[in-house]
Amino acid sequence: MNLLFQILSGILLLQLLFALWNAAQLPVIGAGPGRREVKVQPAQATSRVRRLSVLIPARNEADNIAGCLSSVLACSTGGAEVEIIVLDDSSTDGTGAMAAAAGGGRVRVLRGRALPEGWLGKSHACAQLAEAASGDWLLFLDADVRLQQGALQAALSAAEAAGSGMITGFPRQITGSWLERLVVPLMVFTIICHLPVPLVSGSGDPRFVAAHGGFILIRRSSYDRCGGHQAIRSALVDDMALARAVKRAGETVRLMNITEQVSMRMYHNAKQVWNGYRKNIYAGIGRSPILLLAVLFLYWSLYVLPAAAVLYGCLSGQLGAAIWPAAALLTGIAVKRTSDAAGKQPFWYCILLPAAMLCLSLIAAASWNGSRTRGGYEWKGRRYE
């Protein structure tokens, strides 16, 4: 068994080195002195962004919309013209009225049209927002997002540097319940540990993409060229589908670290975490049961098995047999800490890695099962298959 854990330790050490390198490749939006900024070629430089459209789809977001709009309205814009549009997507909790009150006349609130056949809810809402927008750049925000005061100015600077295409990133995740702490930070973990960040913008291959629907900044011309949300109207994981569409249209997708400027609390309890991830995991890996099993086998081998072996060695008194499993476990924890640091998560979250993988496995199994049953998935009062 020592040989097995020596091999696992070696694999994890390589993964740690990759994660450290990969995290360093992620440009920081609104970077200050000494921080990695976007590399801009002279040919990419453009004139100042004249108008930015901040677009917020909102369905039953009465608890979030006022806080979101307050943070947006408090942002400095460096003199650029900014319009803010909220689409009330058939809410039943007074979201539209709260948005209008919070906007104080500076926010346009639209009433969403009925959901057509063949469309999923968020994509339909975003398409209506884009239709109403007049900006050179479109910034799609989720209602649970909170912006720092310099966020819009940082986004405008990134847009001016990029010239065209799509800019996205993972907001700093605020967590409260235990399932949030265990599962939500794994979003950044999968990117830092598996996706070479330079290939997101440096390769035209649509397989090398990452996106978070809570923050998507896209040039209007690029949005139209890729077909916008119309082109991905039935995609369950809409943010990734839009990023792939942008690449297929010959445009560039840029993944940036936005944690200093953007935060959010995606879920507020264990049930929301379970339902949200259950809806997305299986669709996110292309609905491939073989790939799902392969990923879960890899995660269990690397992150759960060493922890189980250490626990067994301690309980059985065979501490000598736990040395190599402990080395693998600590290396895996170091990998998790690298991704948590990139996502600005508390230091101690990395210790939860084995439990996080166990929870993720259970949700993944439920996600696979949901694709096989007529029940499908439910999210915000709508049912998906």
From TrEMBL:
Residues 53-225 form the Glycosyltransferase 2-like domain. SUPFAM superfamilies: Nucleotide-diphospho-sugar transferases (SSF53448). Keywords: Membrane, Transmembrane, Transmembrane helix. InterPro entries: Glyco_trans_2-like, Nucleotide-diphossugar_trans. The keyword rRNA processing does not apply. The chain crosses the membrane at residues 281-303, 309-335, 347-368. PANTHER family: GLYCOSYLTRANSFERASE, SLR1566 PROTEIN. This is Glycosyltransferase. It comes from Paenibacillus tritici. The lineage of its organism: Bacteria, Bacillati, Bacillota, Bacilli, Bacillales.
